[in-house]
Amino acid sequence: MQLDWPGSLPEMPSNCLTRATTHLNMARLGLGDMSESEQDRVVLGFCSVAVFGRSVTLALQHLRHWDAEGYDQWYGPWRDEMNADPLCRFFYDLRTDILHGGVPNIGFMLGSAGLHAPPPGTVRLIGRPAPTEHKGGPIEDASTLNLCRLYISYLEELLASAADVVWQIEDRWQAEQEVVRGQ
To answer: Which of 56, 89, 120, 123 would be a feasible disulfide site paired with 144, CB 3.0-4.6 Å?
Structure first.
C-alpha cells in the first residue's frame, strides 16, 4: 500500500478531481453545520467552508503537473477571476488567517431585537468587512450563511468546468504512459 503524504502528487490526473470533489463535499458539510443551533458547530462550519473551499482549488492546481499548457488555458481565466473577485478574496484571506494566523475574531449572535438586527445564530467576523460584490454584481445579503452559499456555488461551477479538462489531461497522460510502456 502506497501512502499519500500531504504535498505529494496524486498517482493520476483524475485523482485531482476526486480530491477536489471531496474537499467541496467537506465545505458543503460545513455549510450544513452553519444551520445547527450549537454555537461551536456554526463557527466550525463557517471555518470549514473557508478552509475546505480553498482546498478545492489547491487540489485542482495539481493538474498542472501533467499538462501545464492545458491546465493554464483552462485555469488561467478562473484564477484571474478569483483574484479580482471580492467574495473569493474574502474566503482566501479568511482561510489564510485560520490556518496561519489563528482563528479570526468571530462573533455569534445569541439574541437580537429590532427590524434590521441579524437573527440569532448569525456568525459575524469582527474587524473584517463582508464583501459587497461577487462576479461583477452586488451581494444583496451579506450574512455569513449567504456568503458561504455563494462561495460554494462558485466552487461548484469551477469544479463542473474542471471535469472535461481533467479527462482530456487524463487521456493524454494515459496515451503517454502506453507509449512509455511500449518502448
So the answer is: 123
